[in-house]
């Protein structure tokens, strides 16, 4: 079964929707990123950082302990001492996340000219390369996570609207011209003047803020998924019986963040697979990647329902936002009368809707 939110019907033209968004834009225009961070309930006391000299195994274990998917990579202490002598700022080398490590593992196997077309071949290749791959220093990995931007804490005085436009959305429209970035971001790394990471801002943080102030969104809050065309982009899906490693390889190739998981017999929606499902993955659990997607999700979420969260064309925007925030998910699926997925609403879709 699936969880469903909001089914009230409403009929409005797109012109009316465009006029209704002024309340949302007004709220985000007058609120600074700094003010949103001050109001945030889950304030981060310290940002986890990884050292360049950390091995892949050490980095994955640190991420597991903090229950996070990513962390900035910083210079080692010896490097910092040398940079301070040369009056060079503290260095953030980049961001590493679990999916980046996974991509590096696949590349490592390919450089060894190993074939892993079947789960059995993948398990064999894993046994061959893991001992050396896990000893690699993350500073030496060619792969880097490009899902993240850095800003200084002093720049947090910019408006939330400007923050969303500059950092979180793949496209926005200016005078009828659509401007696209190469790839949208899900997080912003906040640095102090010494380049030390002091905070992380995510798209979810923005949605939480909107959820707390839905009454200020004006008429936009009552507009529906259909009226706002939130689920119009192509839907990516996989069957629950394909190997998990192959699903993540495809995710990387197609530059997408998640798949609808469907039953291989009738293609009904049975789950969701995204980078978030790699949370807690370590060298000791790499072998789970050879499992079918359905089994992998059961192992990765032992205390969490695998029931996909759905919406309908008539679900109101305020219900979409509230469901995403309170169930801590990143997407809602739209299904047809046969329970097959036909659309998806993501955090980015909601933020882009406000910018339109």
Structure characterization notes:
The chain has about 350 residues and is an alpha/beta fold. The chain has 14 helices and 15 strands. The chain has helices at about 15-20, 20-30, 35-40, 55-65, 75-85, 100-110, 120-135, 160-170, 205-210, 225-230, 245-255, 295-300, 315-325, 345-355; strands at about 5, 50, 70-75, 90-95, 150, 170-175, 175-180, 185-190, 195-200, 235-240, 260, 270-275, 310, 330-335, 340-345. The protein has a four-stranded mixed sheet. α8 (about 160-170) crosses α14 (about 345-355) and α9 crosses α13 (about 315-325). About 35% of the residues are buried. The model is unreliable at about 1-20 and about 170-180 (pLDDT under 50).
Mean of pLDDT = 84
Shape: flat
Could you say which structural class the secondary elements and strand pairing correspond to?
alpha/beta
**Straight-line N-to-C gap:** 34 Å
Key features?
356 residues, alpha/beta, 4-stranded mixed beta sheet, 3-stranded mixed beta sheet, 37% helix, disordered N terminus
List strands and helices in order, with pairings.
Elements: E1 3-5, H1 14-20, H2 22-30, H3 33-39, E2 50-51, H4 56-66, E3 70-74, H5 77-85, E4 92-97, H6 98-111, H7 119-133, E5 149-152, H8 160-168, E6 171-174, E7 177-180, E8 187-191, E9 197-202, H9 203-212, H10 225-228, E10 237-239, H11 244-253, E11 258-262, E12 269-274, H12 293-300, E13 309-311, H13 317-326, E14 331-335, E15 341-346, H14 347-355
Parallel strand pairs: 1-13, 2-3, 5-8, 10-11, 13-14
Antiparallel strand pairs: 3-4, 6-7, 8-9, 11-12, 14-15
Helix pairs in contact: 8-14, 9-13
